[in-house]
Structure formats: C-alpha cells, structure tokens
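stage 2 :: seqdesign
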C-alpha cells in the first residue's frame, strides 16, 4: 500500500508558527487517512521548535526567525526526521504545505519578512526531493491523487 507523508497542519493540527492549522479539505485525504496511508509530520515541531513560535524564513542556505535567531539546526533536524519516516515507510510521495520554509515545494518567502515570495524549496521539501521523493502541495493535490491511484 502506497503511503504518503503529509504536513501535519493540513490535517487540522494546530502546529503552525501562529498556533493555528491550515486544514486541507479534500475527500481523498479522509479516505487515505481511513486506509492508514498517511504518515504525519510537522518538521518544525519534530526539529524541536515550539508552538507558537517566531516566524522563520530562509536566507540562502540558512534559516532565521524574525528576531534574527539562527534556527537552521532545528529545521535540518526536522527535515532529517521527515526523511527517516519516508525511508521507514518506503514513501515516494509527500504532500507538503506550499510557501513554508520547511514544507514549501515550489515557492518560499525570500528571507526579508516582507511577504515576498520567490522560487525555492523549504528545507524538508528540498531534502526529500534530493532523495527521490516527489513533493506535492495543496496546489497539486489532484496530480498526487492521479499518481497514487495509477
Ligand atoms: Fe505545517 Fe510544515 Fe509549517 Fe509544520 S512546518 S506547520 S507541517 S507547513
């Protein structure tokens, strides 16, 4: 059975920096959940960060929070834990939240905390991608469904 790694906040878990979730409503997700296909992680919490926490953005290969603290190690730890879960469950697909400095698969914020988005991948999305795991987002969930069901 194909399993899928999924951002915890998509499932209504209040793990975001602001203490909120980012629920992704799609009937297929409930089906996959009922089938036991979803492997859930919030990489930032897995990396040791708290809820709520300061906003963070990538700047080159580092990650800083909005107060200038370097949180790169926590982000890397979370990414490694996500990869470990993928390897443990033979996961080939991840459904991750776009724009997040951990989970973004196509676009992220530019490190200036000005709301500017640039092309790029979050720390976890990038590590998974480098290991052959295909990263999808809320914007490409239909493609993921086709891929899993083919
Ligand atoms: Fe959601 Fe990923 Fe941010 Fe955690 S790190 S709150 S799973 S987008």
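stage 2 :: out
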């Amino acid at each position: 059975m194909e399993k899928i790694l999924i951002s915890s906040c998509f499932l209504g878990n209040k793990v975001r920096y602001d203490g909120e979730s980012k629920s992704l409503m799609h009937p297929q997700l409930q089906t996959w959940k009922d089938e036991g296909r979803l492997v859930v992680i919030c990489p930032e919490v897995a990396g040791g960060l708290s809820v709520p926490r300061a906003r963070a953005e990538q700047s080159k290969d580092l990650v800083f929070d909005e107060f200038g603290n370097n949180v790169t190690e926590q982000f890397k730890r979370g990414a490694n834990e996500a990869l470990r879960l993928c390897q443990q469950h033979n996961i080939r697909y991840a459904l991750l939240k776009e724009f997040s400095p951990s989970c973004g698969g196509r676009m992220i914020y530019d490190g200036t905390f000005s709301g500017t988005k640039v092309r790029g991948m979050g720390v976890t999305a990038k590590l998974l991608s480098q290991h052959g795991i295909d990263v999808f987002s809320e914007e490409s969930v239909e493609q993921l469904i086709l891929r899993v069901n083919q």
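stage 3 :: structure notes
- Helices lie at 27-34, 43-46, 72-88, 123-130, 141-149.
- The chain has one domain: 4-148.
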